[in-house]
Design goal:
Elements: H1 2-13, H2 20-49, H3 52-78, H4 92-122, H5 130-158, H6 161-190, H7 195-222, H8 229-240, E1 247-258, E2 261-270, H9 276-294, E3 297-305
Parallel strand pairs: 2-3
Antiparallel strand pairs: 1-2
Helix pairs in contact: 1-2, 2-3, 2-5, 3-4, 3-6, 4-6, 4-7, 5-6, 6-7
């Protein structure tokens, strides 16, 4: 197991060796492997130690595992080219994956709260083996920090929604594992066992907030909401640079995300004495430079002469 993880880590770090799609697949696979290992470890130790917070952490990691499987699937599907059935590409597979991952995070948080409340009322004073718990939580924190850092880096480089959601998912696991680790440490020295379910509830609330944030952001993409205001402003600033090339103004600007891909539509108003040939050349230049400035983007431009400005909504 450790040899395979080391190999994948080395593969991801060597950025020049692999293309971006291969990197995305590799880090998604790395997340699956690490989560599988952590789930087994937490379940075994949770049952042996009798800690509800560790068992709840195992459930959280199971959510991470399912999310990682979804991420790998979405990365593979989103990399497929457009076809007859999906003429706009497969980018929304990543948004769908991110939305489901957010739901899994929320479900894990609710389950943890439910189990913790049960233990507060029916078994908060039962002794637990804190030594085993501290060991497995420490391993979980270190491993998830490494894997989530790699996921965040590749997600940023590839602008991948699903990899970002998976990385965010693992980061909540780091926070929750740290919380459990601190709780077990306090219990070890104080013997106040009710802290075990109380800390589990606090951690679950943090997890819930992260899941809600991911679900909201990806739902916006699935519903074709506009890009964030700062990105729209960047597009406007970009278009304004071409007003010295015969463009009088622009209108009907719309932009949305399709997974890692952005789709931009705009109507350009040209000086009325310009030829179609000259206008077309300017549009080609805009499309080319827009890809250089914004990365994975497609642009749909409608041309209108200046005199039509009054009639455009």
């Amino acid at each position: 197991m450790s040899i395979m993880i080391d190999f994948l880590l080395l593969t991801v770090i060597m950025g020049g060796v692999m293309d971006m799609i291969a990197k995305k697949k590799s880090v998604a696979a790395l997340s699956i492997i690490s989560n599988s290992f952590i789930i087994i470890l937490k379940l075994v130790v949770g049952v042996m130690s009798g800690s509800i917070s560790i068992i709840s952490e195992a459930v959280h990691s199971l959510g991470d595992f399912l999310a990682s499987v979804l991420t790998l699937f979405s990365v593979i599907k989103s990399a497929e080219p457009a076809d007859k059935k999906h003429p706009f590409g497969h980018g929304k597979y990543e948004d769908m994956s991110g939305f489901i991952e957010g739901g899994l995070i929320i479900f894990a948080a609710v389950f943890i709260i439910y189990e913790a409340i049960k233990k507060i009322f029916f078994g908060a004073n039962l002794e637990i083996d804190t030594t085993l718990g501290l060991l497995v939580m420490g391993i979980s924190v270190v491993l998830n920090i490494i894997v989530s850092s790699i996921l965040f880096k590749v997600a940023k480089d590839s602008d991948s929604v699903s990899l970002y959601a998976d990385a965010e998912h693992l980061r909540t696991d780091v926070l929750s594992a740290l919380g459990v680790f601190v709780a077990l440490l306090v219990i070890k020295f104080t013997g106040v066992y009710i802290l075990d379910p109380i800390i589990a509830i606090i951690v679950a609330l943090i997890i819930f907030e992260a899941g809600f944030s991911i679900s909201k952001r990806t739902m916006d993409n699935l519903l074709d909401c506009s890009l964030p205001e700062n990105e729209m402003n960047d597009i406007c600033e970009f278009l304004n640079k071409f007003k010295n090339k015969g463009i009088v103004d622009y209108t009907n600007l719309r932009a949305r995300r399709l997974g890692p891909h952005r789709s931009i539509e705009v109507t350009l108003l040209f000086q009325k004495d310009m030829t179609i040939y000259d206008c077309h050349n300017v549009c080609d230049l805009i499309e080319h430079q827009m890809k250089e400035s914004f990365g994975d983007v497609s642009t749909s431009i409608h041309l209108e002469p200046e005199c039509e400005k009054e009639t455009i909504n």
